[in-house]
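Re: the request from the purification team.
They wanted to know what the chain is likely to look like in 3D before they choose a buffer screen. I agreed to run a prediction and write the result into the notebook, where they can find it.
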Amino acid sequence: MSPAEPNRFLLYLCVVLLLIQISAGTINREEYDQWAGARGMANVSRIHDQIMRTSPKDITSSILWQNAASAMLNTLKDKYSDYSINSPFDKNEGKVGIVVDWAEQLKIIDVIPNSPAYHAGIQTEDVIVKVNHTSVNEQLFTPHSKLERIISIISGLPNTPVHLLIERDGEQLPFVLMRKKANNPHEVTSAVLNGVGYIRLPDFTPGASARLRSGLSSLFSQDGWNGLVLDLRNNGGGDLTEALRVAGIFLGNVIVAQIEPEADSLSDNVLKYGKSKQFYHGKLAVLINNNTASASELLVAAIQHHNRGKLIGTSTYGKGQVQAVIPFCSGKGDFRFTVTQFYSPNGDVIDGKGVNPDIKVDESAAAQFAWERKVLSSLYSDTQIVPEISSDKAFYEAVRFLTETTE
């Protein structure tokens, strides 16, 4: 036997013993996966460092790490898994007052009242084609970071301009908006209109239930109304706990949803109850459309199930999933991913289907926005001009339901 043969024999023996241990489960295969744990982090860091040494100057470290984060989230194949690197509400940053979403195009899904975009006449369902004369598609980003990047470009220093090219009904319209310190985009609008109470709840962010109570208290202090219109059109949802609290305001401590248990749990669906004492007991009509989503759908499904009021408008979006929101270490921004689904109180599927209205009213986004703009304009001026009820078909049907129905 040559001197090299014993070494070769020992090597073969070690490999055989290693394979036996792995096949027997005594050694975790993941320990020998070069992409698992710390090894994977080291590999990605090495790729990052090499690119930074040799790449063009327009590739930054931030871009590389953001795309790495997007790639990890994309492996979940879940369109609701995403991350945010900016605070959604920074009082010191200049904003224009729009809420956008990216699917195949950059669409405006809400316009904040009394904001630069609101006063310029930008509408929901408008599509942003260019920002500062650059196409929104000409970006070196994945869909996740692209949206963040575009939002950061639209935002900026207060009292500085931003150029937007908007597409609406096949026509391209240029806008120059002057950024200003942000209004509170979560503000609840309340008013007495056409003999009924009207409340617009824009989202279910933390504090939504308290803001809704405040809006209702304001209405309670006024005379001349009977019945409430709750406007959830373009309300994209928010915090699950806030949704349960808001549900309690209208329904009390009843079952408002079923929540699917964790993936590794064998238990049945968890029943969720309204988390507050019933605050409003009167007649109720709820306005919904195809942008009414997530937590909003939990609420309207519960209202419909308990026959607490009438849903008026078009079918809702169909997002019956719950995301966990994890803050980044810096404290600025977060990432989120789907952890479970929710259903109506009787177990009806909401995800991918939505909630159908009791009274269907088809209406263009432009007509709805025009009416809402008139309402809000009357609230922000001294004239208090009430818009024609017939200019918003869904609101018209809600008023007719409330005034022609007795309890």
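For the purification team: The chain has two domains: 94-181, 189-404.
Please add any questions underneath this entry.
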